[in-house]
Write a structure and sequence with these properties.
Length: about 170
């Protein structure tokens, strides 16, 4: 089965599932020499399937996931926590609802490269690759490859019917 057919079948199954927001960080121009706070603007929606984000016409590699929240003064001990707080506030400034999940830092993938119709030969720097002729996904940077159709079947099942307490 081709990668396009696998992704189309996944989209069809995902129709009733909820989507999550995609965002892009924007640094506004200075006004009268005064810098304005960055914000995250809406860039569409996607189904979140672990290492992948699936839209109506594309497949993306997952980046950072944040929840929009109002800007408040917080005492963070870690610089990474401070940065995440700033990103959450930037999402709220960009118009996302309080608590809304936003994906940023995602990147486009070329699934056609796995079918031999793209520029590559199945090699990939992202989570998708062709392994022994089978479209596969690496679900973590240290994990092994798993057939893409099995991975999507499992992830869609979890999204449509989450375990109790999830």
């Amino acid at each position: 089965m081709s990668v396009a057919a696998i992704l189309d079948a996944a989209r069809e199954r995902l129709t009733p599932a909820r989507r999550e927001a995609l965002g892009e960080l924007v640094s506004p121009r200075r006004v009268l020499g005064i810098a304005r706070a960055p914000r995250i603007v809406r860039a569409g929606t996607a189904w979140h399937l672990g290492a992948l984000l699936l839209t109506d016409d594309a497949v993306l590699a997952t980046g950072e996931i944040i929840r929009a929240r109002s800007e408040t003064i917080r005492g963070y001990t870690a610089e990474s926590q401070r940065r995440r707080g700033e990103l959450a506030a930037a999402a709220r400034r960009g118009g996302f609802e309080e608590g809304e999940t936003v994906h940023i830092g995602w990147r486009m993938l070329d699934p056609a490269a796995l079918d031999g119709t793209g520029a590559g030969s199945g090699a990939s720097d992202g989570p998708l690759a062709l392994v022994a002729g089978v479209p596969s996904i690496r679900w973590s940077t240290s994990g092994g490859f798993m057939p893409l159709d099995r991975y999507l079947d499992e992830r869609i099942g979890l999204l449509l019917d989450p375990p109790a307490g999830a």
